[in-house]
TrEMBL record:
<dbReference type="InterPro" id="IPR037401">
    <property type="entry name" value="SnoaL-like"/>
</dbReference>
<dbReference type="Pfam" id="PF12680">
    <property type="entry name" value="SnoaL_2"/>
</dbReference>
<dbReference type="InterPro" id="IPR032710">
    <property type="entry name" value="NTF2-like_dom_sf"/>
</dbReference>
<protein>
    <submittedName>
        <fullName>Nuclear transport factor 2 family protein</fullName>
    </submittedName>
</protein>
<feature type="domain" description="SnoaL-like">
    <location>
        <begin position="8"/>
        <end position="107"/>
    </location>
</feature>
<dbReference type="InterPro" id="IPR008317">
    <property type="entry name" value="UCP030561"/>
</dbReference>
């Protein structure tokens, strides 16, 4: 597994454990979350932390499972199935992670 894939896997495991500090440790201080096509939804680690603190509080059984992962240079593209709760709402998403200097610097979500 490439270093970039290990970083993305680590943040996914922290996400599934709802370990906010560990999750945020994989992101650069100035990281950006965006919709596919460029609409920025969160900018900076404080905004990312706030978003995920709310998500973890609202969906305490939320988990994401990787269906497929592609690594191309500094990008990791996952196809994930997200479940809000066992037997509850689920959906698929394709986050495109961009990494630099051992951190996630941008995630573009294809929904």
């Amino acid at each position: 597994m490439s270093d970039n894939a290990k970083i993305v896997q680590g943040q996914l495991e922290a996400y599934n454990a709802q370990d906010l500090d560990a999750f945020c440790s994989f992101y650069a201080d100035d990281a950006v979350l965006a919709g596919y096509g460029g609409e920025i939804t969160n900018q900076g680690i404080a905004s990312i932390r706030e978003r995920h603190a709310k998500l973890f509080a609202d969906f305490p059984q939320n988990t994401a499972t990787v269906v497929n992962r592609i690594v191309v240079g500094s990008n990791v593209i996952d196809h994930e199935k997200v479940s809000r709760a066992p037997g509850g709402e689920s959906f698929e998403v394709a986050p495109i992670y961009t990494l630099a200097n051992g951190k996630i610097v941008r995630v573009d979500f294809v929904k």
